[in-house]
Amino acid sequence: MSETESAELERFRNETRAWLEANCPPEMRKPATSDADVFWGGRNAKFSSEPQRIWFERMRDKGWTVPDWPKEYGGGGLSAAEHKVLRAEMARIGARPPLSSFGIWMLGPALLKYGNDAQKKEHLPKIAAGEIRWCQGYSEPNAGSDLASLQTRAESDGDDFIINGQKIWTSYANYADWIFCLVRTDPTAKKHDGISFILFDMTSKGVSTKPILLISGYSPFCETFFDNVRVPKSHVVGTVNRGWDVAKYLLQHERAMISGMGERGVGRPLGQIAADSVGTDGQGRLDDAMLRGQIARFDVDEAALAACAERAVDLAKAGQAHPAFSSAMKYYGTELNKRRYEILMSAGGVDALEWESERSKQGARPRAWLRTKANSIEGGTSEVMLGIVAKRILDLPGA
Amino acid sequence: MALVLTEEQSMLRDSARALISDKAPVSHLRHLRDSKDPIGFSKEFWHSFAEMGFAGLLVPEEFGGSGLGYVEAGVVMEEIGRTLMPSPFLATSVVAASALNRGGNAAQKSEYLPKIASGSLLATLAIDEGAKHRPLQTSLQAVRAGNGFKLSGAKALVVDGHVADLLIVAARTAGSAGEREWLTLFLVDPKAKGVAIERTIMVDAHNSARIEFANVEVNADSVLGEIDQGSALLDGVLDIGRGAVASEMVGLSDEVFHRTVEYLKSRKQFGKLIGEFQALQHRAAELYVDIEITRAAVMKALQALDADVAKATSAVAVAKARAGTTATRAVQEGVQMHGGMGMTDQFDIGFFMKRARVCEELFGDANYHTEQLARARGY
């Protein structure tokens, strides 16, 4: 980097820091305490608080709900280096993301790469502005880890496709406005070759959803049914029957997102949280030597993973990243997050077992603990991730 | 700063790799071991290393060095780890050079640093005393005597101790073992009266010595840094050494891993390449992820050292702890997946296992550094 460039970047850092200090409400400088506290946007979106609204609108107006997207699509137009600075400055004050969205994390990157002009102009600005909430129609009852065996059919009818079938584990389908969906457009082709990636409105005739009650007591996922849903062929992203390319590309982003779910470096250190309930000895050490050791090992691994996540971004920028590396990160990040919650449950002891009380915020900790068990299943299981690493990165033989 | 090597650093890596893999593959270590080489490394190769500018890599340019940073030192250490080359680079060029450069006065620097850069002086830090690395437990006594001090005590795991021209000895000038205060570093001539050096042949066939000090007289000029207040200097130098050893362990782990994956792709059993078995594929994939994460943590620590040694402690603890557990896993999987061949002396993989075990003890093992992180985080 030249001196002028680093001076420019330093100026950007100072401006950004000042702007964030002036514009991020204090309430938005700590992690969300519940899912209801996260703003997902959409046609029916409601802000849970005034600071949440202010923070979202200010960031949206700067294009910083999607800082690295082009300005013409409602993004901030930041360079990779500027984006890194913005993230670091937001982390510095603990600023939470103003908008959470599968449109930002998953569909947007896929549209930027595979979408045509009309599709980009139609959908990206509404994602950036939080106007449309998206869900992902990938898994089916008989197509989980073996996603490419999906059977939801899309049959040609003039300028439209007629879609019939069922999806499952559709996150927040009951709140979503639109869906990006994998459908089989050629049942005679090999399983990876007959799939298309298509977008449609969840209010279309023939779409219905049914939430699934999970072990956490929450229903973040749905079954989603399609009964003769008519969708214009112009809603296919990329080439008909080449949807698997788009799907794979998007999965890399999904995996990168899930690997980051552990909220690394956010909030109080685990050791201090544990000290609240377990207590400390005369020297101020956690009064449970084995738990203390577990936490310390966790902290080592978490810090190392954070460095690796940073490096993954830098490698991608330098054009040196392996496309399957997000599978490696997804595997480790989700397993680590499960470890984190096992430690939190052990540290909380009896207090962490309460399911329904004000004191426990309606069992926030045990419900979050149970939620993390899905981390290593959703978006590709740990076993599938290891298989991808073995085959695509290590080039080991076999299927 | 981006966590990737710059173009210059990549070129340094390439030239170090070319030189080391050509002149000092694992067979070089095997030869030194089998011939019971009295020096324990190749002097001739050390001179070409110096000519390439590696010996003085961390020495400032005004003293004839290259004035590069810890990331660059790590790049060279990683390449050393790939072939397990015995070399004075760690003890002399990284640890001793850093101690002299960070703690030395003008006279000490101009006396020793140019000689380190030219490859003509070997130096080493003598720190450990007990079975485990516990710097604060230093109990080697330095008692004031006339204008100087008298040193009494014993050191172990002194790398290159039997060939060093200069010893940097951590001693206690007051107080008692366990205290952070009252530590002082001394520059000691290994030929001084009362110094008894025993070369210890170690499991990894790399250089190490036990050294006894019986009323060894040193003058006041031989103090490196502040009297009684040597802890900060020592902490920094040890962290630099830890970062370097962690880099060596990344190189070692990566090399074992590559050899193992190649074996999985060539060995057949049950009519199949063993790399087709999912049980082995997943273990190989897990190890790959472990190594990549550790590589990033080590790079982070080296960059932190370059930014400010005094603020790098936690990053270094993470790096050395991760490097230890990763290397231990890598060499064990390496031997296991090579099956019976992995157990033979004829096969190189065992050398990696042996060296990993020594690297793990050097400057504190994974347990030590995990404990340090817990303390730093206040729980």
Number of domains of chain B: 3
Radius of gyration of chain A: 22 Å
Query: Which percent range fits the helix content of chain A?
Result: 40-55%
As laid out across the biggest beta sheet of chain B, the strand order is 1-4-5-8
Family (chain A): Belongs to the acyl-CoA dehydrogenase family.
Keywords (chain A): FAD, Flavoprotein, Oxidoreductase
InterPro entries (chain A): Acyl-CoA_Oxase/DH_mid-dom, Acyl-CoA_Oxase/DH_mid-dom_sf, AcylCo_DH-like_C, AcylCo_DH/oxidase_C, AcylCoA_DH/ox_N, AcylCoA_DH/ox_N_sf, AcylCoA_DH/oxidase_NM_dom_sf, Mycobact_Acyl-CoA_DH
Protein name (chain A): Acyl-CoA dehydrogenase
Strand and helix map with partners:
The complex is a heterodimer of chains A (399) and B (379).
Chain A: H1 3-23, H2 50-62, H3 80-93, H4 102-114, H5 117-128, E1 134-137, E2 153-157, E3 160-171, E4 178-184, E5 195-201, E6 207-212, E7 221-232, E8 236-237, H6 243-259, H7 270-278, H8 289-317, H9 325-348, H10 364-372, H11 382-393
Parallel strand pairs in A: 1-4
Antiparallel strand pairs in A: 2-3, 3-7, 4-5, 5-8, 6-7
Helix pairs in contact in A: 1-3, 4-5, 4-6, 6-9, 7-9, 8-9, 9-10, 9-11
Chain B: H1 7-23, H2 26-34, H3 43-51, H4 70-83, H5 89-103, H6 106-118, E1 123-126, E2 141-145, E3 148-158, E4 166-172, E5 183-188, E6 195-199, E7 209-218, E8 223-224, H7 231-264, E9 268-269, E10 272-273, H8 278-307, H9 313-337, H10 349-361, H11 366-376
Parallel strand pairs in B: 1-4
Antiparallel strand pairs in B: 2-3, 3-7, 4-5, 5-8, 6-7, 9-10
Helix pairs in contact in B: 1-4, 4-7, 5-6, 5-7, 7-8, 7-9, 7-10, 8-9, 9-10, 9-11
Quick structural overview:
Chain A contains eleven helices and eight strands.
Tell me what you see in this structure.
Chain A: Its cofactor is FAD. Chain A: It comes from Bradyrhizobium vignae. Chain A: GO terms for molecular function: flavin adenine dinucleotide binding; oxidoreductase activity, acting on the CH-CH group of donors. Chain A: Keywords: FAD, Flavoprotein, Oxidoreductase. The complex is a heterodimer of chains A (399) and B (379). Chain A is α+β, with helices and mostly antiparallel strands. Chain A has helices at residues 3-23, 50-62, 80-93, 102-114, 117-128, 243-259, 270-278, 289-317, 325-348, 364-372, 382-393, and strands spanning 134-137, 153-157, 160-171, 178-184, 195-201, 207-212, 221-232, 236-237. Helices cover 43% and strands 14% of the residues of chain A. In chain A, the strands form two sheets. Chain A has a four-stranded mixed sheet. Chain B has 379 residues and is α+β, with helices and mostly antiparallel strands. Chain B folds into three domains: 7-122, Orthogonal Bundle (Butyryl-Coa Dehydrogenase, subunit A, domain 1), CATH 1.10.540; 125-224, Butyryl-CoA Dehydrogenase, subunit A, domain 2 (Beta Barrel); 231-376, Butyryl-CoA Dehydrogenase, subunit A, domain 3 (Up-down Bundle), CATH 1.20.140.10. Chain B has helices spanning 7-23, 26-34, 43-51, 70-83, 89-103, 106-118, 231-264, 278-307, 313-337, 349-361, 366-376; strands spanning 123-126, 141-145, 148-158, 166-172, 183-188, 195-199, 209-218, 223-224, 268-269, 272-273. In chain B, a hairpin with a 2-residue loop joins strand 9 (268-269) and strand 10. In chain B, helix 9 packs antiparallel against helix 10 (349-361). Classes of the chains: A alpha+beta (399), B alpha+beta (379).
